[in-house]
């Protein structure tokens, strides 16, 4: 019997509670990739779903022979699920889509046409968004504007799940919770190495969105640390810890002298410094310890119980 060929393309799709979307999406991706004329694999990362998403994907194995399902031990978040997929991907090219079905797999062809021009990353830019303007679209635009200014990678839609990466770029980091919002800039790519392609946005057919207005504030909080994460995160972690301690001491001294205005300013600065240090700390810890654990992998050939190995982490650094 011939050994299975190593795929050239790996499609990575993180899913959490996407029953009704996951199975049809896997079939759509398979149909699109068949027309590429290249060896490929489709990886769905089950991030602690409790609604039957895993069972739906297992049923889909009969229809999509190139499907691999990584079942994580719990709900680690989208960033960790993407990291799991990046590290498990066998192809030299990694494509990603969101698991809710709003990204149209047919649009991968448009991204591919730009990717082969030599870019390290190509990202989708969703047009005519099928979501509420005030609670989803406007906050997204504000967040994307801020991310572009801070990272100097001028994308309009960092949150679009449709992306193509060179595998060596996608595998560079372990992404802590929430840091997928800064892809691809957080991977260290320069502006001239990234292209953006307008893509169609579709309406969600099943379930509800996992994101809301509050995400904008989380992005702004995490964005404060981005300049230091993109340069020397190990160096800046102790530096910002020292800043936090000094700012805390100054705040206490001002409070003791009843200088209320100055105390408020010092406390605000200490809060910002604490946020920067906290994000640097969890980013560095993620690189040391990993951000996910895989319990099992399902393929058409059966299941491998990966979680039985003590302290096993795919992509552990």
Q: In summary, what is this structure?
A:
This protein is an alpha/beta fold. It is built from 10 helices and 9 strands. Strand 8 and strand 9 (302-304) form a beta hairpin.
Shape: elongated
Integer-rounded radius of gyration: 21 Å
Q: At the fourth CATH level, what is the homologous superfamily of the largest domain? A: Spore Coat Polysaccharide Biosynthesis Protein SpsA, Chain A
Q: Into which percent range does the helicity of residues fall? A: 40-55%
**What fraction of the residues are assigned to beta strands by DSSP?**
15-25%
Q: What is the spatial order of strands in the main beta sheet?
A: 7-5-6-4-1-2-3-8-9
* Main beta-sheet annotation: 9 strands, mixed
Counting DSSP E segments of at least 2 residues, the number of strands comes to 9
Determine the CATH topology of the largest domain.
Spore Coat Polysaccharide Biosynthesis Protein SpsA, Chain A
Overall residue-averaged pLDDT value: 91
